[in-house]
Amino acid sequence: MVPNLRPSIDRRQALQTVACGFGHLALAGLAQQASAATNPLSPKLGHHAARAKRVIFLFMAGGVSQIDSFDYKPTLDKHDGQMREFDDARTLAKTGKIVQHRVMKSLWKFRQHGESGRWASELFPHTAEHVDDMCFIHSMHTEGVAHGPATLFLHTGSTNFIRPSMGAWISYGLGTESQNLPGFVSICPAIANGGPRNFGTAFLPPVYQGTAIGRAGIPAAEARVKYLSNERLSSAEQRERFDLLQALNAEQIARHAGDTEMQAVLDSFELGFRMQNHAPTIFDLSQESKETQTLYGIGDKTTDDFGRQCLMARRLAESGVRYIQVNYSDNSANPAWDQHSNMPKHADHAKAVDLPIAGLLTDLKQRGLLEDTIVWWGGEFGRTPYAEKNGTGRDHNPGGFTSWLAGGGVKPGIAYGETDEFGHHAVQDKVHMHDLHATILHQLGLNHERLTYNFAGRNFRLTDVAGRVVEDILV
Fold first, then answer.
1. 265 and 325: one domain?
2. How many CB atoms lie within 10 A of CB 58?
C-alpha cells in the first residue's frame, strides 16, 4: 500500500505557523536587546572584527630582569666587572647626575630554542619550549621608576591619577560572555603598589570593577569566592527570599535614580546569586584529571601555588570571563622579582612560575583556546645591566625591558624590537606601555582611541592621548 504523502497541514496553516515562529524570533531578539539595555555586562560588539575573545595576563610583580631571562646580551660577558657610565632614569631621579656603575653579566646561561631560534636563559626551561608560539617584545619602555607608579601605569595607563584599570575598560567595552560569572577577575592580587586600583573602575560605572579571588600572601588553594552556598535553605527558598530583597531594593533604586554605586551593588547581588550554581564548579580544581594537574605543577611544593592560579585562569577563560589577571606577587613594598641585592633569588621565583606557565600554554593550545586567547606575560619594568651599589642585585629599569604575548592573532615565534648592546634602553622599534595596551585592545576588537568615557568635561581613555597599534606583531 502506498503511504499517504499529503502534508498533515495545508499551506494557510503552514504560513500561520511560520509567522508565529517569526514572531517568536522577533520577540526573542527584542528581549535580548532589552536585556542588553538593562544589563551593562551583556555582550557587546566591538569597533571592528576581533581576533581574540579574552586575555590572560600573567603579572610578574617587581620587574623580571630582561637580561637574565629572554634578552640575550653577550656584550655583558665581555665587559663584566667594568665601571661604565649609564644614562639611567632612576639614578638621575636619586642623584641628579649620570654616575658610573659596575657592569654585571647574566647569572644564567642562554641558548636558542625552537624552530624560531629564540633566546631564553636556563631560568625558564619549560616556558622556553613554547617560544615558537610566542612573540617577544624586547623594546618595551614605560613611565615610573618606582614600583607604585609603574605598576599603576601598567594597569591603568597613569602613574598617579585615579584611572580605570585595563580589565575594567575591556569589560566596559565588551561586556562578558557569561552572565553567571564576572567579566573581569584578578586572582590573588596584592594590596601594595596600587592595590584595588589595579582592578578598579575609577570613574567608570562600578559594575565593571574586577572581582578579586583570594589575595597575595594567602595560598591559592584558599582563593575562592566565600559564602556562595547556603546549606540551610533549599534553592527555591533562596530564590524566594532573593526576589523579595531585589523587589525592596528596586524601590530604593526608584527613589535614588542615577545612583550608579547603589545599582552596582544590586547588580553584584544578582550576579552573586547566579554564581551560586556556577562558580563552585569553576573553582573546584579537583574536577581536573591528575594528568592536567601535574601539567600545571599542582601537587609539587614549588609550583603548586602558581599552578593553581594558572589552571583557575584557564577554567575561567573557557567559561566566558573576558579578562583574567594571574598575579605572582606578595604584599610587600618590594614585590617578588625585586632583587636589588640578591639576583640569585630570581631562580626561586622562576622555578615557581616556569612549569605552570608552560602548562597553561600547552593546555590552552590542546583545547583550541590559544587561537582566541591572548596570554600576556610581563612586569611593570625590567632591571639594569649593572650591579646596584656595586653589589649583587640590579636596580629598576623602565627604559628597556621584555614582555611576551602568545595567541589571539599575534605573530608566533618572533622577536620584535631591541635594546642597546647592554640591554639597558629600548633603541629599535620601541614599544611604549600605551602601545601595548592599544595593541591588545585592537586584537579584542576595540579601537583604543574610540573606547572613551566622558568624565569631568572630557573624554578619557586607557591610552590617554598616546598609543599606537603595533601592526608588525599581528598576523
1. no
2. 24
